[in-house]
Design a protein that fits this description.
This protein is an alpha+beta fold. The protein folds into three domains: 6-130, Acyl-CoA dehydrogenase/oxidase, N-terminal domain (Butyryl-Coa Dehydrogenase, subunit A, domain 1), CATH 1.10.540.10; 135-233, Butyryl-CoA Dehydrogenase, subunit A, domain 2 (Beta Barrel), CATH 2.40.110; 242-387, Butyryl-CoA Dehydrogenase, subunit A, domain 3 (Up-down Bundle), CATH 1.20.140. Helices cover 49% and strands 13% of the residues. The protein is built from eleven helices and nine strands. The strands form three sheets. A four-stranded antiparallel sheet has the order 2-3-7-6, covered by helices on one side. Strands 1-4-5 form a three-stranded mixed sheet, covered by helices on one side. It has a two-stranded antiparallel sheet with strand order 8-9. Helix 4 packs across helix 7 (242-276). The chain is globular and about 80 Å long. The protein binds 3-thiaglutaryl-CoA (TGC) and flavin-adenine dinucleotide (FAD). Flavin-adenine dinucleotide is lined by residues 103, 136-140, 145-146, 170-172, 214, 219, 367, 370-372, 374, 376-377, 380, 392.
Length: 393
């Protein structure tokens, strides 16, 4: 449960003044869904290492799956600010809930919508939007994480079908997925995207157990052992790393908003606790050291809100560069993980219990600072952008 009133959720620079009425309405409906469906159950789900029951259907019902996909394919045709706000509200509940919506929206629906054939769009998008179908995205491999260009998974043209071999690792929702968007190299060494369906012979999805992070989310592998994939499942035109990386642009943008939600949950919880907890005969919120922490939290949240909002307006105009998206993902995730860690201290011993969300958020954010490009990779992307020199290789 939330430990604070909704009125304490910060909007220090009146960002609401920059939002449309529709954005506020969307926020309000997702916020109340999170308060009733996620908050009361998320600690138990995380402790038990299991997703919230019926999560994808619930996310579909609340309009969180592919919100910017056009209505004719089951989406809501919303703008990028709406998408960001939805991600923020979901991650105030838990990063696993936002991850489920991010992967489905940005890493499965986005590539099918952007690169897929009309048949692929009609076949998959409406069911993905409603949550009747769960998708996963396979880019990372055991030997190739930060450097996906080195991937070893292959597709070979066998005339009537493609033959897929290889393995993907650390894949969100792989154990639950009905379909996977998989990136693999063809005979020419070009990276191609293909949709693999559960039930295809030779395709398995073993779960990665015993995680200490994103425990309310299933993570696993995608293993392809001579899988025969129908030719019509290939994305026909897109070739090269820019295919999967353009999906990451969309997901990283959503994360830049999402992590603000996790930071807000930690800040509001700590603020409320500090006002109520008395030591040395007065509320600990009255001590300068605690005020310094709280003042820094609200400052950093405010800066992150403005960064993501501006990025969203650029995205709406198709003017956001990958490097700008990269900066926002990196900055905001670091901001959130630091607030999660520091805010836990304000709660003293109580902060380590499941009664409060900080440990869960902090542990989740260890994944968020690693996936979709690590903090270091994003520093190097900014470094390359400003110097013109590539420090990766
Ligand atoms: P590089 O030579 O720089 O580029 C290759 C081609 O790609 C283009 N490109 C992009 N296109 C669109 N968006 C971007 N962000 C792009 N970045 C690069 C580039 O223009 C080039 O195009 P072309 O036409 O010349 O071929 O590639 P590189 O091999 O040097 O790698 C660059 C690097 C390191 C930045 C990139 O590989 C990278 O971002 N690595 C990090 C990997 C990563 O983020 N993996 C994420 C996996 S998915 C995931 O984590 C999901 S978590 C899900 C959840 O929320 O639960
Ligand atoms: P590595 O690439 O081995 O990096 C290890 C360390 O080396 C990092 O600190 C990194 O910053 C550093 N490093 C690497 N290269 C450089 C360099 N050039 N210079 C300086 N430092 C460097 N992937 C998917 O495809 N789909 C998913 O759905 C998905 N979901 C995920 C869910 C979770 C919970 C997690 C943890 C990961 C998920 N990933 C997914 C994978 C994720 O994208 C990778 O873990 C991430 O890209 C990093 O790759 P790696 O783990 O192999 O680390």
């Amino acid at each position: 449960m939330s430990h604070y009133p909704a009125t304490s959720i910060p909007d220090y620079f009146n960002l609401d003044g920059l939002l449309a009425e529709e954005h506020i309405l969307i926020r309000s409906s997702v916020r109340s869904w999170v308060d009733s469906f996620v908050m009361p159950h998320i600690d138990k789900a995380a402790q038990e290492h299991t997703p919230l029951p019926n999560l994808m259907k619930e996310l579909g019902n609340v309009g969180a799956l592919g919100p910017y996909i056009p209505e004719e394919y089951g989406g809501a045709g919303l703008d990028q600010i709406s998408y960001g706000i939805i991600m923020q509200e979901l991650e105030r509940g838990d990063s696993a809930v936002r991850s489920a919506a991010s992967v489905q929206s940005s890493l499965v629906m986005f590539p099918i919508y952007t690169f897929g054939t009309e048949e692929q769009k009609r076949k998959y998008l409406p069911k993905l939007a409603s949550g009747d179908m769960i998708g996963s995205f396979g880019l990372t491999e055991p030997n190739h994480g930060s450097n996906p260009a080195g991937m070893e998974t292959t597709i070979k043209d066998k005339g009537d079908y493609y033959l897929l071999n290889g393995a993907k690792m650390w894949i969100t929702n792989s154990p639950l997925c009905d379909i996977a968007v998989v990136w693999a190299k063809d005979e020419k060494g070009d990276i191609r995207g293909i949709v693999v369906e559960r039930g295809m012979e030779g395709f398995s999805t073993p779960e990665t157990l015993d995680k200490w992070s994103l425990r309310a989310s299933k993570t696993g592998e995608l293993v392809f052992n001579n899988v025969k994939v129908p030719k019509e499942n290939l994305f026909p035109e897109i070739k090269g790393l820019k295919g999967p990386l353009s999906c990451l642009n969309s997901a990283r943008y959503g994360i830049s908003w999402g992590v603000i939600g996790a930071a807000i949950d930690c800040y509001c919880t700590a603020l409320q606790y500090a006002k109520e907890r008395t030591q040395f005969g007065r509320p600990i919120a009255g001590f300068q050291l605690q005020q310094k922490k709280l003042a820094e939290f609200v400052t950093e949240i405010t800066k992150a809100q403005l960064l993501s909002w501006r990025l969203g307006t650029l995205k709406n105009e198709h003017k956001a560069s990958p490097a700008q998206i990269s900066m926002a993902k990196r900055n905001n995730t670091k901001m959130a993980i630091e607030i999660a860690r520091e805010s836990r201290q304000i709660l003293g011993g109580m902060g380590i219990t499941g009664d409060f969300p900080m440990m869960r958020h902090a542990a989740n954010l260890e994944s968020v600072i690693t996936y979709e490009g690590t903090h270091d990779v994003h520093l190097l992307i900014t470094g390359m952008d400003i110097t013109g020199l590539n420090a990766f290789n």
